[in-house]
Fold this protein.
Amino acid sequence: MRYLHGVLGPIIDRVFEEKKYVELDPSKVEVKDVGCSGLHRPQTEAEVLEQSAQTLRSHLGALLSALSRSVRACPAVVRATFRQLFRRVRERFPGAQHENVPFIAVTSFLCLRFLSPAIMAPKLFHLRERHADARTSRTLLLLAKAVQNVGNMDTPASRAKEAWMEPLQPTVRQGVAQLKDFITKLVDIEEKEELDLQRTLSLQAPPVKEGPLFIHRTKGKGPLMSSFKKLHFSLTTEALSFAKTPGSKKSALIKLANIRAAEKVEEKSFGSSHVMQVIYEDDAGKPQTVYLQCKCVNELNQWLSALRKVSISNPGLLGSYHPGVFRGDKWSCCHQKDKSDLGCDKTRSRVTLQEWNDPLDHDLEAQLICRHLLGVEAALREKHRELSAGTEAGSVHTGPGEAPEDALAQLLQVLRDLQEAHRSGLASPPPSEPRHPGPLQT
């Protein structure tokens, strides 16, 4: 996400701030008055189209320039993945007529699944706090179309689809050359460089979750006020930190090892059902609580899950907590008067969301793969018989980059070995405990 913000952030901000009317489709052009008060004249369709083309050429050029400069900033794992994809596709399609195919394979992910979605919906990628209005959305959509045309390597099919994008063709053709040069440098990463980059990134403690939250901290014994200050928070494997803006310097708020609980706060405490509390110990070992308000219940659950996952192995996790706040001289939830009393509700430190980036359970994943292969074993055997018959007739050939024909036979043999080992394990008696001489019974 940090890489995406570095490449797209300035361009997206510029589009939102300028709020220019941009349209290339003649059937959708709105002719408007231009000029000073008293000197208005209607702007012609040709002027609207020309100004729109100039604006989009400027945005597209700035985006491609930023992308070209971002090779070193791209995460090493992404570069290694694209390198493997590029090489495999080039091995499969080695002919000169397929020169662009490896590049298109990479841009199918880079542009279609990464850049274009973020351009069209910047709020979903935390590039902006609010959704774009209708005018800005149209500009972003046209820019995303232009980026995709560059990613398609300016093929005749993409040009014929929307002929009114023709004014951008000079910039698109120049962008194709820039993008190919960028991809060539991007996939040119050796294993040693990849390891060095991974080591550097690992030292940077990448964020587990980040985004805007409203903070309220308890001070003294006075009544709590429901005023929250908006800050940008970042949770890493080391600490929960905050900053005024995503790009400004961060200040550590809570060390990860000091977190004792992350729980919801009852709605009546602050008049909102989207408030959570993080209970932790400060450097002096004294318990402290910080209250954080999220924008919606989904965001609340995601933050709670992330905080619980990174602190689940912490020593001293609390078994109970107060879902209310200490207001005046008592807790609002249970009315206990001692602030240090045990909580009146149990904590839920192991209640988390199952997400795509959770660490894998290797035993479980291996079992799922094996079960799936056993389910399609009959189909695999049938396919193997077809391939074997074709090989004998001389009709099956191994193409560039393809696996040898006996790979399927090896897979089937592994499945047989696994089933045999499983049956043997079920048939054999459970291992008995070693016998040790016990004490004499008297």
About this structure: The chain has three domains: 2-201, 205-346, 362-394+403-422. The chain is about 45% helix and 15% strand.
